[in-house]
């Protein structure tokens, strides 16, 4: 399956479960003082979770452009060095606003991954929140019970507040979560060390692909947790990781999402990408990643500048330039040459790149 087919399957699967397909909100946030950029699919739905506004649909599904380079969720220094963190990424999400809850969310995620996408059940692990006495939040016994019907006990892992309680920032809607991890190692490696021991241990081949968050609280400014009047579902699956798993690759950069930019960079630099850990290889990945963040944020109205959100984009731009100048020996501006391929790749789902190509370049 191509990345476009994988994205479409997600949307149509949930459409078939009564979800309304909605567009991504802009990656640049203008109306939320707690965030500079959209860092999760749920940002645009915050007011529905908090009960400040009625949701127009009880169930929605989308792919959201996200950026995790500032604030609570910041992955910038990992990007390019490893093979599965990104600045800009697409988060596939299905949402329930006061409608279905844990049972449906978990069962549908399992059905989609194993029956529709055909991921081997033996390679999947689920994490469950163990509770937190200090905050007086109970363990997720309901989620545990649902997973026990789907998975053997040695494929379920308990996690603490850091891994299994999701918050978008210092304040706002939040709740316990249940993640799905996939073990992409070889059969020999899997026989030698059980995947259960490698979940949430930064192993490059045992990675989280989907987070099912059960929004039950609002984190207030004074740090307290206020239970919400209704409960909601917020799920997020990184498209780039999912595509890597389904295309049988060991790196996100070997998928059709990034291969176009890598090939163009090879042509411009006259160097070959060898998918290793050398500085030039890191540079190829940095460029393939950063061009997306830069292009999408400019298209959504954030120009690089010397303050605030603009400065974040300038730092990404500088990091990209530094890498091609230093490690690929390209001494002329080159990022704009990656744009036409990117705009073509995303023209069906994010036509804003094509529409603003000259301006972004
Ligand atoms: N909000 C959760 C996350 O970003 C799930 O969508 O991981």
Task: Walk me through what this model shows.
This protein has 361 residues and is an alpha+beta fold. Helix content is 35%, strand content 21%. The protein has 13 helices and eleven strands. The strands form two sheets. Strands 1, 2, 5, 6, 7, 8, 9, 10 and 11 form a nine-stranded mixed β-sheet that branches. The radius of gyration is 20 Å and the shape is globular.
Overall pLDDT: 95
Q: Count of DSSP helices?
A: 13
Uncertain regions: pLDDT < 50 for 5+ in a row? none
Largest sheet: 9 strands, mixed
- Secondary-structure element pattern, one letter each: HEHEEEEHEHEHEEHEEHHHHHHH
Number of strands: 11
Radius of gyration: 20 Å
Class from secondary-structure proportions: alpha+beta
Bound molecules: serine
- Strand content is 15-25%
Shape: globular
Helix content: 25-40%
Distance between the termini: 31 Å
Question: Quick recap of the structure?
Answer:
The chain has helices spanning 3-15, 46-50, 102-116, 141-150, 161-164, 187-192, 239-246, 259-269, 279-299, 308-327, 339-345, 352-355, 357-360; strands at residues 20-21, 59-67, 69-70, 73-74, 88-96, 124-129, 156-159, 165-167, 172-183, 206-219, 225-238.
């Amino acid at each position: 399956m191509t990345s476009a087919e994988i994205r479409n399957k997600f949307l149509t699967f949930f459409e078939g479960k009564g979800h309304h397909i909605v567009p991504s909100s802009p990656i640049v946030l203008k109306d939320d003082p707690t965030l500079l950029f959209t860092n999760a699919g749920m940002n645009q739905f915050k007011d529905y979770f908090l009960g400040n506004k009625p949701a127009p649909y009880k169930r929605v599904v989308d792919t959201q452009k996200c950026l995790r380079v500032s604030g609570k969720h910041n992955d910038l220094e990992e990007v390019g060095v490893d093979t599965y963190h990104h600045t800009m990424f697409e988060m596939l999400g299905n949402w329930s606003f006061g409608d279905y809850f844990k049972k449906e969310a978990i069962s549908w995620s399992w059905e989609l991954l194993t029956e529709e996408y055909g991921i081997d059940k033996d390679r999947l692990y689920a994490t469950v929140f163990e509770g937190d006495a200090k905050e007086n939040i109970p363990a997720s016994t309901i989620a545990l019970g649902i997973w026990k019907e789907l998975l053997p006990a040695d494929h379920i892992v308990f996690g603490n507040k850091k891994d299994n309680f999701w918050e978008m920032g210092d304040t706002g809607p939040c709740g316990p979560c249940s993640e799905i991890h996939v073990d992409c190692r070889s059969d020999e490696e899997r026989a030698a060390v059980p995947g259960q021991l490698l979940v949430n241990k930064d192993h490059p081949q045992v990675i989280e692909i989907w987070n099912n968050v059960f929004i039950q609280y609002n984190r207030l400014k004074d740090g307290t947790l206020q239970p919400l009047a209704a409960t909601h579902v917020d799920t997020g699956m990184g498209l780039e990781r999912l595509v890597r798993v389904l295309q049988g690759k060991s790196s996100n950069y070997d998928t059709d999402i990034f291969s176009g930019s890598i090939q163009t960079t090879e042509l411009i630099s006259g160097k070959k990408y060898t998918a290793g850990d050398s500085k030039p290889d890191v540079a190829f990945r940095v460029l393939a990643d950063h061009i997306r963040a830069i292009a999408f944020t400019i298209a959504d109205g954030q120009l690089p500048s010397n303050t605030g959100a603009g400065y974040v984009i300038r730092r990404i731009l500088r990091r990209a330039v530094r890498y091609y100048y230093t490690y690929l020996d390209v001494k002329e501006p080159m990022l704009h040459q990656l744009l036409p391929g990117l705009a073509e790749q995303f023209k069906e789902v994010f036509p804003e790149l094509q529409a603003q190509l000259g301006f972004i370049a």
